[in-house]
Amino acid sequence: EVHLVESGGGLVQAGGSLRLSCVASGFTFDDYAIAWFRQAPGKEREAVSCISNSRGSTDYADSVKGRFTISSDNAKNTVYLQMNSLQPEDTAVYYCNTRGTYWGQGTQVTVSS
């Protein structure tokens, strides 16, 4: 059974940083791409970043390019999202996803101004 567990969210002031983690289990970790999404109150869930199954390719939403970095540790079955220069508009619940089907429970990120 596929499981994705996010952690690392919290409350941070504008300009601060957080690192989110997504620990995966139940499948061969590097067989599938993994993506980060976020959903702010009253808004639709949006894609933030993804890393390819080979872990050699990454992509970012325009709104986070240059501020967020996705990476992985295959030995730990974990994908990270390093978030720097956080802004209040980054406030959302952040989810990881694989295969477009499996979601974690999410982790709350709140950025105060």
> Which regions contain 5 or more consecutive residues with pLDDT less than 50?
none
Computed Rg: 13 Å
H and E order: EEEEEEEEEEE
* Biggest β-sheet description: 7 strands, mixed
Shape, please? globular
Number of contiguous helices = 0
Query: By helix and strand content, what is the structural category?
Result: mainly beta
- Taking the alpha carbons of the first and last residues, their distance comes to 40 Å
Strand content: over 45%
What's the β-strand tally? 11
Helicity level: under 10%
Kindly report the average pLDDT value.
96
Descriptive terms for the model:
about 110 residues, mainly beta, seven-stranded mixed beta sheet, four-stranded antiparallel beta sheet, about 0% helix, about 50% strand
Structure described in brief:
With 113 residues, the chain is mainly beta. It has strands spanning 3-7, 10-13, 18-25, 34-39, 46-51, 58-60, 68-73, 78-83, 92-98, 102-103, 107-112. Strands 2, 4, 5, 6, 9, 10 and 11 form a seven-stranded mixed β-sheet that branches. It has a four-stranded antiparallel β-sheet with strand order 1-3-8-7, with no helix packed on it.
